[in-house]
Amino acid sequence: MLIAREKRKSNVAEYILYMWQVEDMLRAMQMDIELVNRNVVSQFGGDDATRKEISDWYDNLIEMMRKEEVTKSGHVQVVKNMVNELTELHFHLLHNVQDMKYKQLFMMAANNLLDYRRKTNLPEEVSDVELALHALYGHLMLRLQKKEINSQTTMAMETFSRMLAYLALRYKEVEENEEMM
């Protein structure tokens, strides 16, 4: 919860990847709040009130996953909405405002996105933004498993990372400007 809150404020792409990881962790723990408390919440420092708040956050997320029927796979709607918002911003930057920096970053990632799309079974409806997020999440999982990753894959992931980092920065700017209005 503390990490999610900070990531949500600072970088929406990192937040989405973090939430996907949390969803998978909760699935691995069979959506059992007692297991989560014992293996995750107990690791956090702070006082009992903070640990209770963290436990409640995980418990609420488990309940949300159950209600939305994503206990086996998929993502909670609030996270899917953020992916959709990033996708909308992606199209806006490419087509409406002609953001040349973003256009350049996207073009550097475009061939890698095509290659990744060909190698995965993700449906054609999956946006380039979601595709890049999936690729980075898979890359993260490989790194956590200490699997060998070839240099071509690493270079492709860097193009996705740069594209999403800029997109997240622009997303944050839009959010901050809306708050000021």
UniProtKB/TrEMBL annotation:
Pfam short name (any one): DUF4924
Q: Its GO CC terms?
A: ribosome
Q: Which UniProt keywords apply?
A: Ribonucleoprotein, Ribosomal protein
Recorded hits in InterPro entries, A to Z, give: DUF4924 (IPR032574)
Write the protein's name: Ribosomal protein S15P/S13E
